[in-house]
Each structure stands twice: as structure tokens, then as C-alpha cells.
Amino acid sequence: MLPPLLEIDVDLPQPATMQEEQAAADAGNTGSSPRSMRSETCLLRGPIIVGAGPSGLAVAATLSLHAVPFTVLERSDDVADLWTNRTYDRLRLHLPKAFCELPHVGFPGDFPTYPTKHDFLRYLKSYADRFAVSPLFGRTVTRARFDAAAALWRVTAVASSPAAANGGEEEGAEVATEYASPWLVVASGENAEVVVPKVKGKERFAGETLHSSAYRSGERFKGMRVLVVGCGNSGMEMCLDLCEHGAMPFMSVRSGVHVLPREMFGASTFGVAMKLLKWLPIKLVDRFLLLVAKMVLGDTEKHGLRRPKLGPLEIKKVTGKSPVLDVGAWSLIKSGNIKIVPEVESFTGGSGVRFVDGNEMAFDAVIFATGYRSNVPSWLKEGDLFTEDGKPKAAQEPTSWRGPNGLYCVGFSGRGLLGAGADALRAAADIAGRWQQAAGAETTASV
Ligand SMILES: Cc1cc2nc3c(=O)[nH]c(=O)nc-3n(C[C@H](O)[C@H](O)[C@H](O)COP(=O)(O)OP(=O)(O)OC[C@H]3O[C@@H](n4cnc5c(N)ncnc54)[C@H](O)[C@@H]3O)c2cc1C
């Protein structure tokens, strides 16, 4: 097997104006004024992959099976930053393991149906080892643009940890490296940055505010009144966790939400839905799911959880919003241990929070379970795959994984790990075809 990184230390010609423009952009993008900034260029023979999450690993593994070298740039210091550093302790995969495996390697037989995040991380690390994927850690990609004259993607990564800024740099120095390659794979994830809504008066709140990515366990909230803003899978599960740790959770709900039992008729709801979709139109499957949900859970609207007009699968398809698969929070909502409150209007000073219905309540802490977004528009300056808010342009379906000029996008189909695996297989096969063509042309030229 070829080594994962084929790096040729060749300085690409670069006009002075572009270097200046790039240094300025880098300083701006990192939001800091580095005490010193060294800059160098590496021309790579294989593709550049941005991100060492499940998507980046899956595409790297598949490229290695095609004997195509690659370079993975990852901003954190380990694989799967989201799962390692930004998730709560009790998290398990929301979907059964059969729908979450990456290409080529199944989960070990002793994994439970819903693997814990620790199981999943163990799997991802051994996956990376198995395919000799060694990302360059501590490299934050701040800019990528296509150089049409050279037919190369020029990708700037800033070394974000002192350990990566080796070579005798002063402590804290930043090194901006430009990597150049004919192929760029965007695998930085749909969840790269946290989303926290602007709420009037938030700075005046006397208690703690945090995003769900910083929540680990309800232990330190024991005895506290905690407002959880958002009612997706994370919001619901954190309320459950808070309850189990002796806190008093309130869940602020702005719009409608579909809560479904995680299992129906002894099988996973997701699996049942996937099977039915092979035979029935989406609207009919939605009606079936809602009927069973009503039988199992009762009327969620009675307890403050209004159902959206579109069904659970249709709304996912149209807006990307996933239904909540209940893991126990629902019965605590019914028993009143988790209280549903309306959308937050403002923070009123001290520990007060006012809701849109005019009521006011006091809380010790507020957790924003308000989701994530992609960061692609902040660094990808070319190509036509993404909207301004970092979502792939739906109009390009079903080929949203491939853009112009050797640009690929893995893990943005809104279909979780299953979609990421499918994208990775297609992108890697396409790159391998072009790689072999290029290698053939080189051989012919040298003969
Ligand atoms: C709480 C939670 C539970 C979930 N459960 C499931 C589930 O059960 N099943 C499922 O299918 N999906 C689940 N998901 C969705 C999940 O995010 C994805 O399935 C999976 O993590 C996507 O992998 P990814 O590699 O595309 O993105 P990520 O896991 O986000 O990985 C992207 C990587 O890119 C790096 N990166 C980002 N920007 C840059 C940059 N500029 N430069 C360099 N590196 C960068 C990040 O540090 C990260 O390591 C869950 C998500 C959350 C938040």
C-alpha cells in the first residue's frame, strides 16, 4: 500500500500580490494577529481532504484501497473532533449500528445495537489505523481557491497548535502552509460551528450559559433550575440527563417537532421507515409512522409538543430537520418532570428569562441546544456546491458530491453517516479514475 502522504517539497510560483492578499486573509480568518507567520508551499500528488471526521476517514480509506495517496488536514489534535470533544457523556448513536458503519469495515459483533460514543470512537480510531490514515493535525484550513492557470486547488492551512509549529519557531508562532493539488475533498462536516441565537439581554444573565457542545453531564447541575433551549435529539436527551441527575429541566420549544418512538414492533423506527420507503410514497410512510407514534406515545400536542404540518420524513427531506427518536425524555415530559415552556423572548437581568407569551421565570443556567452549521463558506472561495450558509445546493442533487474542477464534497447530504459513506465511495472512485488517467498519461509521456 502506498503511504498516505506523498508530499513533494516544491515551491509553486506565486505572485507577490497573491501572497500578500493571502497572508492578510489568513490573519483575518484566524481572528488573531500572530506574533510571527512563516509561509511555505507543498505540491501534493494526491487529493487534499479537509476534515478527519467519519467522512474524511471514509474517503481516505477508500482512496487507500484504490492506491491513491492523499493528505488529510484536520484542525483538532485527533480524529472525529465532534465525537471526541463536543458531545455529552451518555450519547449513543441515534440510529442502529447497521446504518452507521463506514465503508469496508463493519462494527465489531459485540457492539450493542446503539453503540455508545466511546464504542464509536474506538471503531473510528481502529478504522484510521487499519487504512494507515495519518491526518496532519492542528491544521485549520482558512482558505481554498482554484488556480485555473495551474489547474490546482491552493489550500491554506494554519498550524493551530504550538506542537505543530515545529522547526524552531518561537512559542505561539503560526505557520501558514499552502497545499496544492488537482483535487479537493470537503469533509469538514455539517456541524463544524456551533449556532447560538442572539437573545436580547443575554449578557445580563447572572447564571451560566453554554452551548450543548460544552455539556458533558447533568451532575454539576444537581438541584438547579436549568432552561434547555431547543427540542431536537440533543435538547431532549440533555433534559433526560438533567432529570436523572436531580436537576429541574425546562425545555423551550419554538416551533413544532416530531417525536417518534425509537423502536416500533420490536424493530428500529428508522429501519422500518427505510423498508417501507422502498414500496410506498413518503407521505404514506409518514402517515403510518404518525399513527404508530400516537398509539405508542399518545398525543404529544397535549403536552406542548406541536407536530409540524409536514410529516417526519418529508420535513427531514425538505428542511433537513430530523425527528426526535425518543430515548426516555417523553415519559418525563408526560409526568411533568421536564416542563415545556415557549420560545425565549429576552433575558431580563439577574436570573430572569421572559418568554414570548409574556411569562417570566428564574433559572440558574441556560443551555442552548440550538445546533450547528457548516463553516465551508468561510474558507472555500470557489466552486458552486454550497449556499452562503454552508449547505449544499439542493438543485445539484443527485450529484451534490461532485463540483467543478476536481472539487468533491463528502458528508453534506443530510443523511448522516450512511450518506457520508455513500458520498465517500463515489468521490474516491471518481478521483481514482482521474488519478489513473493522469498516471497513464505520465507513463506515456516518459516513454
Ligand atoms: C450529538 C450528535 C449525534 C449524532 N448522532 C448521529 C447518529 O447516530 N447517526 C448518524 O448517522 N449521524 C449522527 N450525527 C450526525 C453526525 O454529525 C455525522 O453523522 C458525522 O459526525 C458526520 O461526520 P463528518 O465527518 O461529515 O463531520 P464531523 O464529524 O463534524 O467531522 C468534520 C471534521 O472536520 C474538521 N474541520 C472542520 N472545519 C475544518 C477546517 N476549516 N480545517 C480543518 N478541519 C476542519 C472538524 O474538526 C472535524 O473533525 C450526530 C450528530 C450530533 C451532533
Task: Give a concise summary.
The protein is α/β, with parallel strands linked by helices. The chain is 30% helix and 21% strand. Helix 6 runs antiparallel to helix 7 (282-297).
> CATH H level of the largest domain: which superfamily?
FAD/NAD(P)-binding domain
Structural class: alpha/beta
The side-by-side strand order for the widest beta sheet comes to 1-2-7-6-5
Bound molecules: flavin-adenine dinucleotide
Question: What name does CATH use for the topology of the largest domain?
Answer: FAD/NAD(P)-binding domain
Beta-strand content estimate: 15-25%
Query: Averaged pLDDT, please?
Result: 88
- DSSP helix fraction: 25-40%
How far is the N terminus from the C terminus?
25 Å
Mass-distribution shape = globular
Rounded radius of gyration (Å): 24 Å
CATH architecture label name of the largest domain:
3-Layer(bba) Sandwich
Report the CATH C-level class of the largest domain: Alpha Beta
Total tally of structural domains: 2
Q: Give the helix tally.
A: 11
Largest sheet: 5 strands, mixed
- Low-confidence parts, pLDDT < 50 over ≥5 residues? 1-36
